[in-house]
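Example 3.2
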Amino acid sequence: MSFLFAVWSLILALLELTAAIVFLSFGIMSSFLCMMIDGVSIIFNLDMRPLKAGRCQYYSGGGSYIYEHFYTSVPCWTVKESCNMTVRSGTCYCCDLYDCANGGYLSNYYEFVGVHSCEEVFTLYILMWTLTILNLTAFFTGILTTAVLGSIKDLLIQGASVYFPSAEGTAASHSFPSSTTSHTEFNPPPFAPQPSLLPYRIQGNSA
């Protein structure tokens, strides 16, 4: 019973390690994907220079919930051009990032909706960088943990091969005698008397 219990415990340990490695592999891929999405969004789509220079405006829209208070047209003046931009209430917008020629199409994020002030955009920026750093930490931690679990799994497999030898190796060891045994059986020791010389010795003594 103890032998079966040891074998069953070893099998359960190997299955748990395999499941943990697979789960961590999915976590590593997810963290890497989130890290790439957040990093690309921050680096290529967010330009914080107008916000830091104080060149962005905030439209509150008032406290009423009438439809006209949700959207309004605001004037935008830049060094090169001037135009009107439609914004929603509770929006921080930056005219320096808005392209009047194509209506802001394929440009950087020029408006941030759902904020109470332009200072909250900095909080959003810091949170996105924090999430990116956490995903990077989770990515490397998952790789190290998976490597450690893989080493433990290999050690368990090696230990199982030592303590639980295979049936073929056991049968082979019992089927074929060792060379030492066969050498001892077919080659007598050098001090044993040779029977072929005994009659000659007897005849010499009788003569």
